[in-house]
Amino acid sequence: MCGIFGYIGKKDAALILLDGLATLEYRGYDSSGIYVSGAGNVKTIGAVENLRKIIPKNFYGTSGIAHLRWATHGEPTERNAHPHTDCAKSVWVVHNGIVENYKELGELLSLRGHKFQSSTDTEILAHLVEEEMKLTKEFPAAVSAALKKVRGTYGAAFMHGGEPNLIVAARMGAPVVIGCGTEENFVASDASPILRHTRHVVYLHDGDVAIMRQNSHHIQTLEGAAAGRASHTIEWDEAQVQKGGYDHFMLKEIMEAPGVVENAIRGRIVTSGGLAKFGGLEAVKDKLRDVKRIVIVGCGSAYYAGLVGEYMFEECAGISTEVEFGSEFRYRKPVVDDHTLLLAISQSGETADTLEAIREAKRKGALALGIVNTVGSTIARECDAGIYNHAGPEISVASTKAFVSQLTILALVTVFLGRQRNMSLATGREILAELTQIPVKIDKILQQKDKIRKLIARYSSFRDFLYIGRKYNLPIAYEGALKLKEVSYVHAEGYGAGEMKHGPLAMIDENFPTVAIVFQDSVYEKMISNIREIEARKGPVLALATEGDNDVSALVRDVLFIPKTLEILSPILAVVPLQLFAYFNAVEKGHNVDRPRNLAKSVTVE
Ligand code: AGP
């Protein structure tokens, strides 16, 4: 996600802001920019180092705002980099978040003669403030009035060229922290760039507006009422702040899952019609109606997410679907035509095998869609259309929150395609209504974090694991096994539970544990039989079971209860405890959890 940083004091603002942006690079970036009062603004694509290199001589001022962009709207280009400004180049803004109603606001502003320089949602904010300044000459009041018109999320900082000793910051749904120094103040998306200057901070609440000067800061609500916010002294170091206080990015990203689901569904559900909507699919929705077959392509976890999608599309949208590894699809002689949809899933948007599979399918006339987390990535650009996850950057090599996001979006796409076909209004509404409950249900699972951590002692001595599931949760057995392999280096194999008698059962004894996904769903009885046959051979079983299902508890060595949900959505919940199980195993083994040996975050070569 983007990072904002602002400084107001007596020192060289450019120097402080550039160092602060470098500290924020862990948040992911594709471009950056800086505005210094009295000196102007500079922005560029790539790392902060690129920005530092092009700062002109004598670029001096003692206040400014800066931004590290992780694109959500608009390609990663210099033109789209923040800060953004208004027509008069007086109002400057840096922003983390999403202005959901930027289209209608932009239309209104265009009618009043405003001209936009970028294709971002953020630029709207500068022009909104410019409009409000015509009504009130008071800059903070103009900012508050403008923000009242915004629907969406923001962690933003504003400056006006005519008031160098003033920064106005505001928070709604995206973190903002104020750093209180001696004759200087700071504002940032998190405390990491502030800590080297001061450990005294104030965290803004949603709806807060902070009016900051060199020697003061005042916090009020959007309505102008004083908001007394406590000051805190941070004990953490920069690294801990970047990990949100967690020991590793992997744990932080697992814990972000509820918000990730909310970001994936935000603005994409039309409850009344039981419909899902995607801005990125508008141009191809008629072609999607004609699709007769779907080929889902991905690698690693993305491939396993695709396997869940296969069950969803077939059962709920009635579309014949197959899933292929990118590395296989590109070398086969795939049967593809103009009624085939190639759906590529990729967090990084740069996986070579997935990219080549897209190119191969497009050569044969298929429509190519992407479910991608990285805006402006190669896969995002080469697909005919697509859907962004808006999951924020995933730093840990092991994919966790992106996988949860992919499943969420696949469920939305299922409703989108299903409602174009014979999915009823009632079914569409049912799936979407339950999808909105998933964040709370994930939260309930995350509250078992310590119970899962304590379980490790009972399993860390085992050298091999079997993960079993059926139907929607067979891919989760594969994904759970992959997580354990990736970060713990322990051998684990995902297997269809129905296959046990066809071979794997021979491996079972007291030294060979099985993780079994046993929800009260359409394959429950079959899974119970599988557990019985394993336990009969003294195989230890750790079961994921539906909350309240005490029958399973009596049958297995350990059980983790998962809130009940629709079978089609159960994989989104099932994967979370398995991610935590893998994480705590790796921690117990003392591995470099975020950077497992031999692996890279994005496999951009074959
Ligand atoms: C998952 O934990 C792995 N890091 C890996 O399998 C990953 O899912 C795969 O390389 C695909 O990456 P992508 O989603 O960026 O295309």
Automatic annotation (TrEMBL):
Predominant location of this chain?
cytoplasm
Q: What class of enzyme is it?
A: transferase
> What would be one Gene Ontology cellular-component term for the protein?
cytosol
Q: Which InterPro entries match?
A: GATase_2_dom, GFAT, GFAT_N, GlmS/AgaS_SIS, GlmS/FrlB_SIS, Ntn_hydrolases_N, SIS_dom, SIS_dom_sf
Is Transferase found in the keyword set? yes
- EC number of the protein: 2.6.1.16
Q: What PROSITE patterns does UniProt report for this protein, alphabetically?
A: GATASE_TYPE_2, SIS
Span of domain SIS: 284-423, 452-596
Can you tell which superkingdom this protein's organism belongs to?
A: Bacteria
* Keyword terms of this UniProt record: Aminotransferase, Cytoplasm, Glutamine amidotransferase, Repeat, Transferase
Q: Which reaction does it catalyse?
A: D-fructose 6-phosphate + L-glutamine = D-glucosamine 6-phosphate + L-glutamate
Biological processes annotated in GO:
carbohydrate metabolic process; fructose 6-phosphate metabolic process; protein N-linked glycosylation; UDP-N-acetylglucosamine metabolic process
The keyword Transferase belongs to this UniProt entry's keyword annotation: yes
Checking NCBIfam families in the record gives:
glmS, PRK00331.1
General function of this protein: Catalyzes the first step in hexosamine metabolism, converting fructose-6P into glucosamine-6P using glutamine as a nitrogen source.
| Name under which the protein is recorded | Glutamine--fructose-6-phosphate aminotransferase [isomerizing]
Taxonomic lineage from the root = Bacteria, Candidatus Giovannoniibacteriota
